[in-house]
Amino acid sequence: MFIDIKDFTLYSQKLSPEELVMELDYCFLKFDEIIDKYKLEKIKTIGDAYLCAGGLPKPSKDHAHKISLAAIDIKKFVAERKKENDRKNQLGFEVRIGIHSGPVIAGIIGKKKFAYDIWGDTVNTAARMEQSSDAGKINISENTFKLIQRKIPCTYRGKIAAKNKGEIDMYFVND
């Protein structure tokens, strides 16, 4: 799952560096709590983006369901936080969320500041799901849809062009 803050550059221009870091920290700490609740693995943050995965380091049959539930919780948290900030006349983030399911390569490379990371087409496709999402929405691939369709309602969006991927069947998670 990739989570990205919509229009982050706008926020960085309107908030002081201290305010920006405080709000990012507040949100990412909440994301950490949510993924812990579902026993998911935080991989890393990349600027204003947050990457996590299910089924790592131990495979699980319900990883797609758990990550979808976590995405729903994150989406609800961000919407509530935005309402709270709007009431205080402060800027509130909006996020785009993308999920794709499939195999990944996981491990640690390098000598300095090494960190557990994941690579592969599944990671790239998850990033494309996020990039093709709308603010406040959870966009999933056909692979993920097939794994959760009996548990979580989704709406088919059609085939959508994704950078370096061609057209991909995409769905929004209904919550």
Structural features, described:
- The structure is a single chain.
- The protein has five helices and nine strands, in the order βααββαβββαβαββ.
- By secondary structure, the protein is α+β, with helices and mostly antiparallel strands.
- It has a single domain (2-173), classed as Nucleotide cyclase, GGDEF domain (Alpha-Beta Plaits, 2-Layer Sandwich), CATH 3.30.70.1230.
- It has a seven-stranded mixed beta sheet with strand order 2-3-1-4-7-9-8. A two-stranded antiparallel sheet has the order 5-6.
Short account of what is shown:
The protein has helices at residues 8-14, 17-37, 63-87, 121-131, 142-148, and strands at residues 2-5, 41-46, 49-53, 95-99, 105-108, 116-119, 137-141, 154-162, 166-173. By secondary structure, the chain is α+β, with helices and mostly antiparallel strands.
